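We emphasize that the prediction below concerns an isolated chain of 113 residues; any contacts that depend on oligomerization or on bound cofactors are therefore not represented. The input was used exactly as deposited, without trimming of termini.
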Amino acid sequence: MTTLAIDTYALVAQLKEAGIPEPQAAAQVATITKAIDTALEQARHEYDLDKLVTNKDLDSRIKETELKIELVRSELKRDLAETKADLVRWVVGVGILQSVLVAGLVLKLAGTV
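Result of the prediction step, given as a token string:
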């Protein structure tokens, strides 16, 4: 709950110095304080002040998001490296198989087998 600190004693003393009787000054300060509390409560309901986002909240969220992005980036690099290794293995395997098949066909056509 958001509250506003008001020095009511100082306000009453200031009003007394201005010539207002103490009971009347105290009543005025109580009324003003109640009006301010009511306005704050109304603003809290209208604008949901308890869920208000501050720059500090935004900074922490941004940092958290940047860390998550870096984690995803490193995982993606790892996955790409694994995929590249798998692709190289397949290409080399297919190349060897193709070479063996071509050599076998050449030998078959030459009649040496």
